[in-house]
Amino acid sequence: MASMDPLQALTAALSVPADSKEQADLLAALRETLEAQPHPIPILCNTLLKTAAGSNDSLLRRWVLDLLHFGIARAPLAVDTRTNLALQSLDVLAALLNDANAWTVKVAVQTFAGVYSLLFRRICTNRNERLQWDTLTRAKNRIIEFMWAPNTHAGIQLAAVKFLQRVILVQSRGVADPRLQNKSDPNLAIVPGDHPFINTAALEAEGVALLQRLITDLYTKQNPDLISAILNSWSSLVKLRPSFVQIVVSSLTLWTPAPLLGLPFIASEALKNPLPSGANFVREINDALTKQAQRMEQAATEERTRKAMATQAQVDSRKRPSSAVGPGEEDAKRQKVDEDPNADATALLATFDFTTLPVALITELVVANLQVFSEEAFQARINAYRHPPPTTVAAPAPVPAVATPVSPAALENAVAADNAAPVKLPPTMPAADRARERMDMDEDIEFEPDQLNLELEPMQEDDETLGAGELAIKELLPLEFRLPPPSVLGEEERAATVKSVVTRIWQSSGDLAVGPQTGGRDMWMLLLVRMITRVVDPDSGKGKEVKNSADPDVEMDEGMVELYERQDRLRRVLCDYIMADFSGRIRLATTWMNEEWYNDQMRLSSDNGWRPNYEVWLNQIVAEYQSRLDRKDRMFARFLLDLPSVPSDVFTLLRDLSTEPDRMQIGFQTLRDFVTQRPTLRGDATTILLELTTHPGSEKVTRNAAILTVKRCMGEFQMTDGMIRDFALQLLRRLQTPRPVDKIPGADADMEDGQLPPEDLLQTPYLQERLELPAQKSQVVQHVELLFALSSKAPDFLDEIFAAYGEMDISVQEAIHDLITALIRSLGPGNGKLLTLMRTFPPGAETLALRILNIFTEHGRPNAQLVVLVRGLIAERDLDARFLIPIIAEMDKPDIMKHLPRIVSILNGTQETKELVRSVFGAVVTTPPQTFGSVTSNLPRVRQSELLTPAELMVLLHDTEKEIGLKSAIEAIGICFSMTDVFRSEILAVVMQQILDQPVLPTLFMRTVIQAVRTYKSLTGFVSTTLLSRLITKKIWTTPPLWQEQLRELVAKQPTLRGPLREFVQKKGGNPARAAVYLEIIGEDEPQGGESVPAPTPESPPPSVPSVPAVPEPTPS
Question: With contact defined as beta carbons under 8 Å apart, do 108 and 163 qualify?
Fold first, then answer.
């Protein structure tokens, strides 16, 4: 059978008759197979559990539940497999705790001992399984009730002890060092500190309280089996939790078998060695074991003595001395013998220890004794036990079988005499003596069914005769009896009576305080509430006719008005009483509101004109308690959570509380509880929270708290996820600038041309109807802060931000550049979603992508992945040169020289662009050493740097002046001259020398020479001796742009020459086109005397170059 197919074996067992021996054999064989090969157990349990658990008690049901217990608690399966099995069977096991069959409940409790630890470990890491945790907590509380309920089945109670041992282990702290923690021992040490719903402090306190209750049971219980179970459970407890060793050892060393006095010796033998082992408590344990051994030896000696004395007494009773007795004494003795013919057997049974007999034999004896009774007699005994006669009334004398007729007058006199005479009660004996007497009577019964039946027949006939006699007496009693009518009370007397009754109820119910409540107290509370809410109209037909009248002017009569006023007065008394101590009487308030709501629903179903009371008095309670709220209040949220319905006024109040700094915690916590614990109110509470995320408070406290609460709700429920996503996207849509469209035929006449048709934009109490442009940053943050917060949890929102960015106004975009900084920093440059968007951002989102790139690099160097991404973008798209600025320093020298002119071309005269280019120059240019140009060395050269030298940068700016643009190139050269620590005089001399070696001089060369001489006077000799002579050799006058720059510098330095030069050009300029160029260089703004000077045309020949006087060869200084 070890190799049989489990599914085939199960099919065969299900095909045979249910509860048959054949089915039992097949299921037993299948169980042996599954114990050897346990892998199919989860599949079989998940398939059969719900069906078997929902059926009546049967062989298959017990087999399935026992298999589930084996699979979770003892099967050699993986921990994850057993955890999934426990999770899937949690609801079914929780329902089985309320089953009527004791065996089923016992197996469920045994299974929960394994389920609790497995699911505790799982829920510690899965924060979304709040429902499973609540179910597990309810099951735990139910099993705890089994443990200390007065009438719990013994098997269930023993199983509960094992479960409590597991709860105490789980709800205590193990080894704090995670390296030494045992994965098979879940405890509070593995619970994260920020877990949303597992309260470690409360669980730890509950575990200690359970251990204390078990210690109390050890000292007070008289059940040896229960005490043995408690002691056995502590063995594992002290091994796994060394912190409990001291309290366990101390409890056991002080324990004495005082509660077990009077029990058989075999019961005490089970507790022979209750102490665990402990290395730190060897002395205490040895002393306690010595005392326990002495007690056990003394108990054994006393037991042997008792048995010997009982045997001797039995022998002595059989040996009677012969003596002469009188006739009277002989008759008396004979009478006693006749009354108790089985005295010897009774004495023997009294001293016999039935615990030495096999259980099967005792069961057969009990069944045989029960079978001697007839069905009628047995049922009569059961009824007599269930309905015992009152102890305060003397039992009537037995009625003879043949009775003479009794007259009514005589019967009335007899009844009157019985009522007048004092009742004499028989003396009572202690309960222990009565129990012992009943045991002695049971032991006197011998197994003689025939003899017992013969003796019981006359008694049955007497019972029938007695029944007939009683029936005849009842026929003579008067049957019609009516109470006198109640006295009619006035209005004041009614109010006083009701107040007196209510006062007595309050006082007798213990002031209805919060705490452990009894069933009687709850019943009094319900009675009090229903006395006030469940009233009946004095004339229901008339009242309904008036209420259902369609005429609103129809008024109720005075009786109806007085009735409603009386009800309101009673409700006001109850309301005042509750508000006097709301936190202590919250259960009464909750019960009242639930009854009011139910009464309104019941009345409105049959009477449309009924005036509801629920919302009226709920608003009264809320309004009065609102003034007493503080930030630490917890009762208000608890009260609202237990209400059957929450009106809109209460939600408005919660909205207002959430905007008050002192009480906002109450509002947000209550709304959060509505979302998580009240599915019917989840939508309304989520709407309030979402609207609060747009609160315009300057301190942002309310808005931040609302955003944090909404972010926590994200991912818990599908409905709230959809609401949160739609709300955030609609806020983003409000920031988009509407695109003009042509006027739609048939549209509203008031709509202007090019205006969008009206759209349903999202509105909240804190947002303007439409965003005014240019937008303020405080307005934009109301729209995007929620979206940014959610993007860190759900990165797909970034797609929506990039898609909508291009349709926003420039003022909105600038505000987003500042507001998105915190989000981008939290995501980091390694975020895959963000890098994907940077690579594929839509047209119009370039500035947003550039802002993100700058955020990544403003406090550090970009990583290699970011550099590759931007280089790819530059190659694929025509992007702004600003994209190169953050990564230019990470490129090699050829790429720097390739892309640097493009960066320089962004110069447009503004200070912002100058600072950008200055930062780029500082990043790509190496600072020359102080000894540059003055010290030589024969040391070998180092590897050429990937950065540019200052001379290379200056030469590059001159060589690419046309690509950059003359104006931008002039600004860039000016930036270089401002960096005096880098571009020193010796650097500029090298630059001029290198440029002069080029075959074609750049246009800005002479301007750079003049600026260098003006900046560093030390360069005058170099320019006059070396540079000018080489310029003459190159015939600089043949290149007009070069000497034109000299002319500009001359006019700029000597403004007084502007007039004479202008006059000279006008008189001797020759060609008008050439004269116009000269005037432009000199600074001619407009023609003198109204004469116009024609502008040069492309077809005009270039101006002739004036003769340049020969420059003498400068003498070396």
Answer: no
Q: What pLDDT is stored for residue 939 in this prediction?
A: 33
- Cα–Cα distance for residue pair 684/705, rounded to 1 Å: 18
Give the residue ranges of DSSP H helices in 659-775.
664-677, 682-692, 701-713, 718-734
Give the residue among 909, 910, 905, 865 at the shortest CA–CA distance from 885.
Answer: 905
Nearest CA-CA partner of 568 in 538, 604, 602, 612: 612
* CA within 13 Å, CB half, 176: 1
Give per-10-residue mean pLDDT for the chain (1117 aa).
70 86 88 87 84 82 89 87 89 89 90 90 87 91 88 87 88 71 78 86 89 82 79 77 76 66 47 48 60 65 72 64 47 47 53 66 76 79 70 40 39 41 41 43 41 43 42 47 73 73 63 47 75 64 45 55 78 85 86 90 83 88 84 84 89 88 87 89 91 82 90 85 91 79 49 47 84 87 90 89 91 91 88 87 89 86 85 84 85 87 88 89 78 40 63 90 88 90 89 86 85 86 79 70 63 69 70 68 50 39 35 34
pLDDT of 137 = 92
CA distance 923 to 676: 54
Residues 6+ apart with CB under 8 A from 661: 699, 701
List Cα–Cα distances, 156 to 59, 70, 104, in angstroms.
20, 17, 9
Residue 935: predicted pLDDT: 38
Could you tell me which residues are beta bridge partners of residue 808?
A: 736
CA distance 46 to 88: 7
Contacts of 220 (CB under 8 A, 6+ apart): 259
How many whole angstroms separate alpha carbon 837 and alpha carbon 834? Answer: 5
Calpha distance 763→766 (Å, rounded)? 8
Which helix H or strand E contains 266, and what residues bound it? helix 265-269
Tallying the residues shown for the chain, one arrives at: 1117
Question: Do residues 155 and 103 make contact, with C-beta atoms less than 8 angstroms apart?
Answer: yes
**CB of 1020 closer than 8 Å to CB of 1088:** no
pLDDT of 686 reads 92
Report residue 102 as tokens: 């004791």
Distance CA(678)–CA(686), nearest Å, equals: 11
List the one residue out of 1012, 1011, 1045, 1009 whose CA is nearest residue 1030.
Answer: 1009
Sign of CA dihedral 406, 412, 416, 417: negative
Q: How many CA atoms lie within 13 A of 252 on its CB side?
A: 31
147, 160 Cβ separation under 8 angstroms: yes
Strands (E), 767-842: none
Residue type, 234: W
Burial 421-450 (b: 16+ CB within 10 A, else e): eeeeeeeeeeeeeeeeeeeeeebeeeeeee
The torsion angles phi and psi of 736, rounded to 5 degrees, stand at -75, 140
Phi, psi of 613 (to 5 degrees): -115, -15
Query: How many CA atoms lie within 13 Å of 250's alpha carbon, on the beta-carbon side?
Result: 7
Residue 114, C-beta contacts closer than 8 angstroms, at least 6 positions apart: 69, 72, 73, 82, 86, 166
1116 phi and psi angles, rounded to 5 deg: -65, 135
Q: What is residue 402's predicted lDDT score, i.e. its pLDDT?
A: 37
Per DSSP, the three-state class of 314 is: helix
User: CB of 1029 within 8 A of CB of 1013?
Assistant: no
Q: Whole-angstrom Cα distance, residue 703 to residue 701?
A: 6
Give the DSSP H/E element, type plus range, for residue 339. Answer: helix 327-339
Distance between CA atoms of 879 and 802, rounded to whole angstroms? 16
Cα–Cα dist 595/606, whole Å: 17
Contact predicate 838/868, CB 8 Å: no
* Residue 1009 CB coordination number (10 Å): 25
